[in-house]
Amino acid sequence: MEPKENIQNFKKLVSKEKSNWLEKAKWRRENKAWLIKSASIAIRILSEIRKQKPVNGMSQKRLAEEMGVTPQYINKVVKGKENLTIETICKIERVLGISLMEVPSFYVFQEYPSPVVIYKKVERNNAQPIATKQLDFQLVGKTPNYTNYIPDGTHG
């Protein structure tokens, strides 16, 4: 083949429309973190569907029906191309009976100087308080709802 023929053949194969490959590459780079997580979720969903198919006949179509979405939407999900909401993730987890994401629990601790002194009413048979009892212990969280009572000498 002549070089001119090669160029002409090449020009026939080249599209006149822009491919926007650079914009797509930039978008993938900017969204890399959620795309990776979405792909992991997609793989987990596909694996679970495959595992459940012989047991209960699970399929992408059935998953879509039980979630109340279209099969096309599930197709996007299992391709890892859908930015999932927490609501959608919860629906998938409920239908498939699996856990896709876990949110770590947290506890709020309030520290007090040690020891903490709290006065507690000491009563007999719902009578008037007769004395106070001092409780020394380390508190975590809220202070117990004890009424402070210091005897004034008028009660027993």
UniProtKB/TrEMBL annotation:
Q: Which GO terms describe its molecular function?
A: DNA binding
The superkingdom listed in its UniProt entry is Bacteria
- HTH cro/C1-type domain location is 46-103
PROSITE patterns per the UniProt record, alphabetical: HTH_CROC1 (PS50943)
One Pfam family per UniProt: HTH_3
The name on file for this protein is HTH cro/C1-type domain-containing protein
Q: What species was this sequence derived from?
A: Labilibaculum manganireducens
Lineage, highest ranks first: Bacteria, Pseudomonadati, Bacteroidota, Bacteroidia, Marinilabiliales
